[in-house]
Amino acid sequence: VKMSPKFLEKCFQSVTKCPAKTVLALQQILELPPSQAWELADVFISNIRWIIKEDVPRLAQELYRSVWMMLNSVYPRKLWLLTVNNLAPREAVVSRSLSQEELSLDPLSVLRCEPEVFRSGPILSIVLYMLKACLAASRTALCQQLLEQQPSMTGQTGEIEKEELKNALVLTQESAAIQILLECCLPNRNEAGSRSSSVEPEAEVKPTSSKDVGSSKLTSLQEIQSLVCCYLHEAFIADPNLAKLVHFQGYPIELLPVTVAGVPSMHICLDFAPELLSQPSLEKQVFAIDLISHLSVQYSLPKSLSTARLAVNSVSTLLSVLSSNAWEDLFLSVLPAMERICQAFPPLTEDVVSLLVQGGKMSISASTLTGYSSPSSLDIAAEFSDHKDVGEVLSLLPSTDRVCQQLTKAFRNILHKTVLSKRIY
């Protein structure tokens, strides 16, 4: 029985109330020859907004992706254009349909879509497929445009400059696409409230219980992060310079645990981590230290050890040259990274502890200048001889400000993760 466009549209509109009807319709389309299924392409794509809703069953979304891939074998460029125009936000300031030429000139238009797309794994995989294709088409168009231009009067030097400008534009497009995808990996307000959010560096992964199955928001976030990490891996392998550009641009530090663990090619960041660490911006230096700490945990290699030692020495140098407000912010920002470095490389524990002592002395000196006076009755030697637990001794030390509190916590964590750990290697 031939399926009519009107019947297919009704099936999509009732996908949340009666998903079985939509599933059967999509399965019937899959049995058709691709050329015959293309007759339903307009209705199929124009109703994609019904599929990206949160309460749509997973089977319906998977079947939709399968049908889309089948249609992609008939008229791919026309299908991409229809999909991009139908996924565009309705609240956009300028809502108009793009042409094929405009899509080639601006491949990032593929990512200008409804927010629900970035929490639907099957639909996002379609978007990523189109993004790769449109970026490749843009590179080809730029190369063709470069070949069609008249030879420069300046000779070979002008041609080299044109080639460099073309490569820079391509890298800019690809890095912008990656930054947008990384941004969509951040949890929204509802997901941020989850205790086991995967973007928290110190979160423990717990098995999913039957009580947790009711909410699929965290699962959707993890799936999106996995898809984005696969895209990043392919992009970094194709052009290692892109990895360097993205990390020199920087991205939210909360995503470092996700990218380091989810992108197998992140080990190439060890090549330019020292250069990133030497940047004049303090924010870039903190990002570099955090990146090195996660890479050290993920890749415990001799190269990681030397880079981690460089990071510890850099922090020690920065503490001695920064102002009081700046060094406190830096010190508190890098404490979790120092804990990870000690966990990855126990031989560096002594250097990190020396760094903590340096920070503690600076904190006490700063407190003295602001009117702080240490209790005269506190005998450090006696306290250490009476108490065997380091935590009890540290709790007796002056720790009224945030630096002392975080320093004590970091020292205790380092003890438990390295010195008192039963399984170091």
Percentage beta strand:
under 5%
Query: Sheet bearing the most strands, described?
Result: none
The low-confidence parts are 195-216, 375-393
Helix content: 55-70%
Number of strands: 0
Helix segment tally = 22
- Give the overall shape: globular
- Nearest-angstrom radius of gyration? 28 Å
H/E element order: HHHHHHHHHHHHHHHHHHHHHH
Assembly category: single chain
- How far the N terminus sits from the C terminus, by CA atoms, comes to 65 Å
The average pLDDT value, as a whole number, equals 82
Structural class: mainly alpha
In short, what is this structure?
The protein is mostly helical and 425 residues long.
What does this protein structure show overall?
The structure is a single chain. With 425 residues, this protein is an all-alpha fold. Helices cover 68% and strands 0% of the residues. The chain has 22 helices and no strands. Helix 10 (156-184) runs antiparallel to helix 12 (217-238) and helix 15 runs antiparallel to helix 16. The protein starts with a helix and ends in a 6-residue tail after the last helix.
